[in-house]
Redox-sensing transcriptional repressor Rex
Amino acid sequence: MPIRTGPVVVPAAVIKRLPMYYRYLQVLVDEGLERISSRELSQLMGITSSQLRQDLSYFGEFGQQGYGYKVTELYQAICEILGLEKQYKTVLVGVGNLGRALINYQGFSRRGLNLKGIFDNNPAIIGENINGFTVRSVEELRPYLQKEGIQIGVITTPASAAQEIADILIAGGVTGIWNFAPQHISTLEDVIVENTHIGDGLLSLFFKMKHQERLELK
Amino acid sequence: MPIRTGPVVVPAAVIKRLPMYYRYLQVLVDEGLERISSRELSQLMGITSSQLRQDLSYFGEFGQQGYGYKVTELYQAICEILGLEKQYKTVLVGVGNLGRALINYQGFSRRGLNLKGIFDNNPAIIGENINGFTVRSVEELRPYLQKEGIQIGVITTPASAAQEIADILIAGGVTGIWNFAPQHISTLEDVIVENTHIGDGLLSLFFKMKHQERLELK
């Protein structure tokens, strides 16, 4: 199934829905489902079927009129669109509670994240073993990045340390940063920063509880 | 500043941006900035100024031609739109690494989340003290909810336990659920569920690293 690789710009809203497609299709693959109509799949995900078809049209021709989608084929295509056929060498910096939660998360390697090293600046935990990884000193970070050819850095430090760590990661050749610190990170143009603001979900919840009557989908 | 409370439906995409407005304005308030133009504010947030004005138009009249926005006034309006003038009594269920990260997070009470109790089913940690909260047994959850008048439940259990916990929360009168378990939760119609899938950020990062040339904003 060919992936269109032309210069068509993909709207940010479409990019945001791709992880949802991946999650739902992964469950359907695991359940052994062979095919699904665009109506069924869109209902499952709480979007319209025209939205689903339009989103997928950015990436190629999927599904057949009257037949629907082959689940495994669509899942594999989404994986390819997302770049999950690669394995990215990754470090995590900041081994607090959130860092530990991520280090222990089972789903990362399935998604192509190859965690190589974990770092902190707290002498009390340097040397500690977490899920098979030994906590290293941040002082070792810079040389480690180049020696191991690290591509992605995950920042789970306090806000005050995030930019300094990002600077080290970028100087060491990292091209993708997954930032959990509540701090805007400035980078070079060719470094991608993805910010995950966990607390945003709480604000959305509050809003929806207050304005139930004004929501598109109840 | 009046908040329009009519039946105008707010698009999901606008709701998703509200937490970002809150975050940026909070920083500007903390920095003591008095006013900001819609151009400056939109540039800071990486959206167009027409987008900003259109988003805010769902909630009332903000800013003045040639003057811009009064920062504190806009921040307070966003807080009111988000429902942050209330305090929501909350429990958290599932005291693993992610649960601990949330319990230790300083930003919750500022955002109106009043954490009252934390629960787990692991005898090894029941009774443990975390950031001033004692871990209670899940068996105490149902009566606790009604006695304390709990409004929000945060689920940080494994996927396999999430629906069972949600059922207890709903039976106990909770009207909002913030779900971190990678599991779809079925609820009654008047219960709001906000899902936070932390791993989605990783997939977005992979996509952007692979398709740099197809992004709207570099």
In short: The two ends of chain B are 36 Å apart (CA to CA).
